[in-house]
Amino acid sequence: MEPIVKSYPWLKRKKAYYIWLKTAGALIAKLGHLQVEGRENVPEEGPVLIVSNHRSFVDPPLIAYAVMKRPVFFMAKEELFKTPILSSLIKHWGNGFPVKRGSSDLKALKTALAVLKKGEALAIFPEGTRAPTGKFLKPKTGAGMIAVKAHVPVLPCLITGSEELLPRGAKFLKPANVKIKFGKTFTINLEDKKENYRTAAEQIMEKIKELSD
Predict the structure, then answer these.
(1) Comparing C-alpha atoms, which of 40, 136, 54 is closest to residue 62?
(2) Which of 15, 72, 135, 148 has the greatest number of CB atoms lying within 10 Å of its CB?
């Protein structure tokens, strides 16, 4: 068995254990009065790279809930995996795997590509961290690298209001109005070269920004 699959057993199954994430998303969505637009743009099968802006820790379960019809896998910052209970929930019930921010994480890249090769939906946050003011941040090149190497449909997603549902530093959810908007899929048609990763990341971020118009 290849090392990546051995570390994340859910990769060898067509359907992963995502009940916990969906259930959490449903509860959070209710408190956030979640509205979803463009759900028909989400492919029902086949590989797809979901790219979204990032405003709150509740974004992953909300996106998983908004997609509805299929499991969504997430690339999450390594720090979230340092607590045993939370790590288990994310890996086995939340379809998540860690990535080291600020460095080239080859294992995370290989895992992301393995998820997409299996025909699954993978969600990433190109900004790499939560935007403190709700504004857009400059995308990381890693998002562009995945898009270029995987060469799969890319689905832009815009989430607004989640920073009010769970603000930075808050321990409890607050009533808010959250909206998730899915755009139409597009492809990154760039040669697999390092100098193209930044261009791809910027193209991705522009597609997300367009959803706010």
Answers:
(1) 54
(2) 72
DSSP per-residue string spanning 90-106: IIIIS-EEEE-TTS--H
What does the alpha-carbon distance between residue 52 and residue 154 come to, in Å, rounded to a whole number? Answer: 10
What domain range is 192 assigned to?
37-210
Residue 4 lies in a domain: no
Residue 82 lies in a domain: yes
- Tell me the CATH number at 150: 3.40.1130.10
Question: Tokens 């190497």 identify what position?
Answer: 149
Please check the confidence at residue 139 and state whether its pLDDT lies above 70. yes
Query: CA 163 to CA 130: how far, in whole Å?
Result: 9
115 assigned to some structural domain: yes
CA nearest 11: which of 142, 82, 110?
Answer: 110
Nearest C-alpha neighbor of 183 from the set 45, 52, 32, 22: 52
Q: What does residue 38 show for φ and ψ, rounded to 5 degrees? A: 85, 20
Two structure tokens written together for 60: 């992953």
Question: How do residues 14-32 score in pLDDT, each as one tens digit?
Answer: 444 456 667 778 888 888 8
pTM summary value:
0.85
